[in-house]
């Protein structure tokens, strides 16, 4: 499995920012503060006849907490700050683009 980040769908009556806060808590037990959107893209899924939009936020952890992974979502975690930290790792392509853009 390639490395990824916590995420998921926006629920009914929920804003994308609220979904990101909820997903961070559900998937890795982290209370975060969202600073800004650092990546967005959309893709059309012809099988579902729907457009899926991905928003990636820059966020800060609000308090030091143990990482508790949702085993249905993640099997392991690493902290990283640059692409160099990922040498030899399989990573989802959009994260490579994000790190490349932020390192220039």
From TrEMBL:
Q: Which InterPro entries match?
A: NUDIX_hydrolase-like_dom_sf, NUDIX_hydrolase_CS, NUDIX_hydrolase_dom
Q: Hey, what's the signal peptide range on this chain?
A: none
Q: What's the domain of life for this entry?
A: Bacteria
What does the UniProt keyword field contain? Answer: Hydrolase
Give the residue spans that cross the bilayer.
none
Q: Does the keyword Hydrolase apply?
A: yes
Instruction: List the PROSITE patterns.
Output: NUDIX_BOX
Asked if Endoplasmic reticulum is a keyword of the record, the answer is: no
Molecular function (Gene Ontology), one example: hydrolase activity
Report domain Nudix hydrolase positions.
5-81
The residues forming a coiled coil are none
Q: What is this protein called?
A: Dihydroneopterin triphosphate pyrophosphatase
| Source species | Streptococcus cristatus
